[in-house]
Amino acid sequence: MKSLMLIVLGNTEISTVPGISVAGATPELTKLTPPADAEYLFYEKPKIIDVIPVTPEGHPTPAIITKAARELANFPLIIVRGGTYLAPLVPHVHISDHVGRDFRKEPALPGAEEIIERARLFGEELSKLPIEELVIGESTPGGTTTAQAVLWALGYEARTSSAAPNNPQSLKEEVIKAGFERAGIKPGDFKEKPLEALKQFGDPMMAAVIGISQGFTGEVVLAGGTQMLAVAALLKALDEDLDRFMIATTRWVINDRSSTFIETAKEIGVISYAADLNFSKSEFKGLRDYENGYVKEGVGAGGATWLAVKAGFSPEDVSKKVEELYRRLMELKAT
User: Fold this and answer.
1) Which of 69, 174, 210, 251 could form a disulfide with 304 if both were Cys (CB 3.0 to 4.6 A apart)?
2) CATH number of the domain that 96 lies in?
3) Hey, which residues does 81 pair with through a beta bridge?
4) Which residues of 205-232 are buried (b: 16+ CB within 10 A; e: fewer)?
5) How do residues 47-80 score in pLDDT, each as one tens digit?
6) Structural domain of residue 62, as residue ranges?
């Protein structure tokens, strides 16, 4: 077993700020998105809620890409509960049930060190297995806002991406500035205090991925978009050697000019891979709209495609399998 994929689930109260996240049909439903994403990877549809996680406009979760890649390449996958409102109804590793708080009102993650320590123990156990590479994805609604807050606190002039075609950047900045005022800091004030940046503005997914990455001694692929830039920046600030790390994302994130993915990755010093998926000729509008800036990444979509490509499949194969899965979803919905 050379590669193992993990999907780390996290929730933050920031996702319930109206307009900040479209990783769910309503702000309140974003609380259910992480466990529902995890369940869909193993079943035809989630157990915790009787619908597939969608954006308010009905675009399917990027878990459909991860599921497609996994059905092709059959790589092993473990769900990790980094900190969510509800546990997924599939076998999983429990790290924490601490949810990230609204950092405008209070520190987001005062228990960050405990989450990191538990996750580190898990990473150390994985190092004892014949695994050369960990591919770590995430499902964390609202996570691009916590990521941007952490990056700002560390001194990066970064703009994170969004699952919406119109990135709510002004709203993100308003929320982050309110958090900085509450904490009494300016951008860059936590450059030498990465754990404080995480405690004040982060989310449990970040803490869990940091701990796992520190405990595991092999290669690590951070499978995600701009959220994983914050993880990489925290790891660097914690004196981790980024030579064994890579970010695997999708071309939709790379091409998102409302974010600074390329510039920030270069500034942090982490290399990246972009899955060249294309849904422009899909028969389904929900998938074609990925080409118009919807969804972009999540649930390890880029990393799962990376594993499928390493197993001999092409991005086109993954795209075709996604089409097949979406058709199955439509048939289920019709029954």
Assistant:
1) 69
2) 3.40.50.10210
3) 9, 94
4) bbbbbbbbbbbbebbbbbbbbbbbbbbb
5) 988 776 666 566 788 999 999 999 999 999 999 9
6) 3-334
